[in-house]
């Protein structure tokens, strides 16, 4: 047992009186005691560490992933044997993630294994891509052949409106798809019908809502309206029906996005033109201070938005100058009609000019201001100054135009605003 510090201090005087030989023996004895104590301490420490480790191990649980995750991981590694064992144990072969690694990596054996286990050959990911979309895009000819033989839908449409053959750039794979489509008697009419099936179905649903006088501006949980959804998908015919039935073009969802934001984000060029033609503002900002241009990544759509914005700014600038000119002209006309001021009342002339104090009660005004509004911006400011000899004719002509539905007038003006005349984009009616 090693000596304590106090014990060593107490024996220092005794050790000082010992001979050299006795001191050496005493030192050896103390060293032996020290080594023995050190060995005992190491032994106790090892025993305690082992016990502590055993207790920790007893508390620790092994990480075990669900079979569903294990299957996806094994498929991504192309481990056919492990996938086969998992499928045999009851794991569903229809499990999926967003990437669809089997078809992208051309794992033919893995795909065959999953198909043999009953996997759905037309399973879709979050963007509505089927395995055939993935295989065709990557140019995996053998895999395309395998999927088609298993019943893959050649006319499946993804979220972008593309079929497998639309995405195929490999010549051999594209030729194979075209040959198979020809053998199955698929015509262009059939292709167009499938491509527009969702828009047609939605148009039917919206027509039913219109007939039942349902609220077309009712938001969902995220604040999006039907027009948001239609704009994101580019369904022009449905959008026209909604806008004709007073769907709000500037309504915002919870993120502050308008339908124009949605159309710009998903690159729907014609939808952007249609919404702007119906009064959608190009400067509306979302919660994150983003305009439709900010959320648009498609260069063609960005160019169109900038073009529309440039035209709008130029028109507003010209209108400002025109408005000032008309106001000065109106002021000059009123001054000429009033003539010099006199102290007494002016004699009443038989052929009096236009009234400058306003129309008589119940009478039609001789001067009219016609305004067209784009959002909250004044688009046109037209002053019609008439005289006694032509007043009635011009008034009747103007009132006849005024009896036309105001929406038609707005369509004509907005068509001019977008294209400098002619039919508005997106098929907006002008008559």
Concise description?
This protein is mainly alpha-helical and 431 residues long. It contains 20 helices and two strands. It has a two-stranded antiparallel ribbon with strand order 1-2.
Give a quick set of tags describing it:
single chain; about 425 residues; mainly alpha; Serine Threonine Protein Phosphatase 5, Tetratricopeptide repeat; two-stranded antiparallel ribbon; about 55% helix; disordered C terminus
Which CATH first-tier class of the domain at 67-195 would you pick?
A: Mainly Alpha
Radius of gyration from the CA trace? 42 Å
CATH architectural designation of the domain at 67-195:
Alpha Horseshoe
Percent of residues in β-strands: under 5%
How do the helices and strands follow one another from N- to C-terminus? HHHHHHHHHHHHHHHHHHEEHH
> Helical region count?
20
Would you tell me the overall average pLDDT?
A: 74
Strand-pairing-aware structural class: mainly alpha
By oligomeric state, this entry counts as: single chain
Helix content: 55-70%
Spell out the CATH superfamily of the domain at 67-195: Ankyrin repeat-containing domain
Main pleated sheet: 2 strands, antiparallel
């Amino acid at each position: 047992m090693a000596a304590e510090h106090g014990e060593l201090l107490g024996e220092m005087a005794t050790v000082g009186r010992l001979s050299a030989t006795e001191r050496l023996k005493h030192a050896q004895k103390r060293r032996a005691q020290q080594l023995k104590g050190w060995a005992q301490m190491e032994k106790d420490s090892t025993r305690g560490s082992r016990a502590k480790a055993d207790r920790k191990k007893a508390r620790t649980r092994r990480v075990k992933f669900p079979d569903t995750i294990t299957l996806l991981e094994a498929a991504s590694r192309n481990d056919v044997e492990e996938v086969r064992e998992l499928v045999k144990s009851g794991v569903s072969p229809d499990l999926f993630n967003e990437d669809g690694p089997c078809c992208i990596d051309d794992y033919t054996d893995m795909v065959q294994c999953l198909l043999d286990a009953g996997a759905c050959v037309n399973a879709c990911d979050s963007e509505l891509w089927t395995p055939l979309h993935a295989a065709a895009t990557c140019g995996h000819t053998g895999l395309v052949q395998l999927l088609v033989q298993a019943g893959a839908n050649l006319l499946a449409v993804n979220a972008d409106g593309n079929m497998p053959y639309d995405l195929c750039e490999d010549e051999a794979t594209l030729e194979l798809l075209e040959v198979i489509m020809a053998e199955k008697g698929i015509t262009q009419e059939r292709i167009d019908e499938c491509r527009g099936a969702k828009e047609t179905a939605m148009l039917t649903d919206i027509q039913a809502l219109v007939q039942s006088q349902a609220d077309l501006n009712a938001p969902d949980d995220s604040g999006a309206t039907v027009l948001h959804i239609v704009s994101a998908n580019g369904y022009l015919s449905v959008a026209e029906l909604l806008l004709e039935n007073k769907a709000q073009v500037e309504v915002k969802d919870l993120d502050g996005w308008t339908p124009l934001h949605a159309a710009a984000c998903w690159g729907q060029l014609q939808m952007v033109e249609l919404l702007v033609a119906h009064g959608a503002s190009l400067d509306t900002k979302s919660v994150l201070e983003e305009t439709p241009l900010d959320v648009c990544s498609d260069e063609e759509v960005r160019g169109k938005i900038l073009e529309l914005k440039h035209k709008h700014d130029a028109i507003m600038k010209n209108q400002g100058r025109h408005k000032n000119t008309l106001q000065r002209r109106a002021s000059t006309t009123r001054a000429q009609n009033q003539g010099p001021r006199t102290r007494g009342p002016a004699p009443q002339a038989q052929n009096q000019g236009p009234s400058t104090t306003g129309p008589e009660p119940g009478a039609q005004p001789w001067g009219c201001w016609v305004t067209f509004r784009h959002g909250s911006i004044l688009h046109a400011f037209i002053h019609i100054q008439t005289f006694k000899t032509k007043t009635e004719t011009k008034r009747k002509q103007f009132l006849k135009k005024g009896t036309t539905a105001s929406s038609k007038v707005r369509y004509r003006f907005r068509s001019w605003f977008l294209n400098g005349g002619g039919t508005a984009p997106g098929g907006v009616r002008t008559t």
